Amino acid sequence: IVIPTSHPGAPGELGDLPLEPTGSPAVLDVGDHAHRMARAKPMLRLHPDLVAAWPDSLAAKPAALALLDDLESKYEQDPTEVARGVSELLEKLATANGLCDRWDWLPKTAQELNDELSSSNKLGRQVSLIGKESLVIASRKRIRDADAVNSETSDGESSFSDEDDSSASGFSHRNGSPVRLSDHLSGVEDYARRHATGCGLPDELVNAIACAGLLHDLGKVDPRFQSLLRGGSTWVSGEMLAKSSEMPQTRTARDRARRAAEYPSGGRHELLSIRLAESAPEILPEDQHLRDLVLHLVASHHGHCRPFAPVVEDDMELSFDYELRGHRMHWNGPTKLERLDSGVADRFWRLTRRYGWWGLAWIEALLRLADWRRSEWEESHDVGK
User: Fold this and answer.
1) CA distances from 68 to 51, 64, 83, 109, 330 (A)
2) What is the structure's pLDDT at 299?
3) For the whole prediction, is pTM greater than 0.70?
4) Which is more confidently placed, 103 or 151?
5) How far is CA 142 from CA 157, 174, 186, 257, 264, in A?
6) Suppose 337 and one of 71, 96, 260, 309 were both cysteines; which one would form an S-S bond, judging by CB atoms 3.0 to 4.6 Å apart?
7) Which residues pair with 324 in a beta bridge?
8) Distance CA 31, CA 25 (A)
9) Omega of the bond prior to 21 within 30 degrees of 0, cis?
10) Which strand (E) or helix (H) includes residue 137?
11) So what's the pLDDT on residue 157?
12) What band does 17 get if pLDDT is binned at 50, 70 and 90?
């Protein structure tokens, strides 16, 4: 049941929404603030309804509303003038002060976006016109002090994420011991099983989600990925790793290590995980629906393959082998899962029809959170020692 926020009963009667200091209902849309916190990237959406929710004490509020007035016509007549207006607005927002805690993210976001926005006042990838009356200003760069952004949460919860390979396969500190792949797979399997069981799911779904936890990171056996986990060193030996403090954390270091390891740009270990799992059908559920679910959970555990797999240009014909609990797995060459006929997208739609939009996303969350919680535990307990 979807109920619009404009419904007479919302929000007071249909949910617990705290009031602003003025006594008016709090702002429902916190997307920009959440985007900055979760992804360490600033973004600002300018729409009349969103701007109207800004504090009245904000001096830049009238300027923002004026910018959006008849926006489509302004853009058609002179896009550079609109871009100039965006720059001026960001400068005003960046100097705002005296805002309550709920709005202190706004001037920070404006300053970060203003620093990045081109001085040429041309609308590029950072600024997009959406519809007739909305602008989106989105950064392509992570905030420099991303740790400080993530630590802004007030409830003390960890900010671990899996935005990219550096955060999903590295440690936030530099003295952690490497985590063996076999240990990580078993650990995520256990967490996933506990999550699914705790949610009261039937046994066949519990087992499928646990199976996905066991298989989710198989693709890290790629020797080039193992090299990345060792800072780009091509002299890879020893046990397969899942995580390491040597995983490069900055874009420059990642690019340098990736080139040294000959790992493809945009490479995704979860795609190879699918191919390796498919090569050992006996480890997957016998039921076709559950088999689909396991493979989709493996494919989507970092947010991709919903429905399309990312395009990865990989010309190397490498051979990949791994043995897991007596099951031999093998794949040769690129995964080619970005192809429309790979089955990835078809599988997503079959599962969406079976479990529903929110049902499938909920099941995905059980595995993703299991991966996060296990990773947090590994980092805090230094399990490699």
Assistant:
1) 10, 6, 12, 19, 56
2) 97
3) no
4) 103
5) 21, 20, 32, 19, 22
6) 309
7) 327
8) 17
9) no
10) strand 134-138
11) 41
12) low
Q: What is the pLDDT of residue 296?
A: 98
Q: The tokens 């671990």 sit on which residue? A: 160
* Nearest one of 235, 233, 330, 230 to 283, comparing CA atoms: 330
**Which among 327, 346, 349 is positioned nearest to 337, based on CA atoms?**
346
Per-residue confidence at 246, pLDDT binned at 50, 70, 90? confident
Q: Which two tokens stand for residue 110?
A: 């404006």
- H helices of 117-237, where? 146-150, 165-169, 181-198, 203-215, 223-228
Q: Helix, strand, or coil here: 292?
A: helix
3-state DSSP call for residue 30? Answer: coil
- Strands 43-46, 134-138: pairing kind: antiparallel
Instruction: End-to-end CA distance of the chain: give it in Å, rounded.
Output: 50
Closest Cα partner for 165 from 78, 79, 232, 77?
Answer: 232
Residues 6+ apart with CB under 8 A from 312: 264, 265, 266, 267, 268, 271, 334, 335, 338
Taken in order 106, 126, 123, 117, is the CA torsion positive or negative?
Answer: positive
- Could you tell me the two tokens for 226? 């193992």
Handedness of CA 48, 52, 55, 59 (dihedral sign): positive
- Hey, how many other C-beta atoms are within 10 angstroms of the C-beta on 382? 14
Task: Write out pLDDT tens, residues 157-213.
Answer: 444 445 555 556 655 444 467 899 999 999 999 999 999 999 999 999 999 999 999
**Six-digit token string for 169:** 């396969």
Q: Which residues contact 29 (CB under 8 A, 6 or more apart)?
A: 50, 53
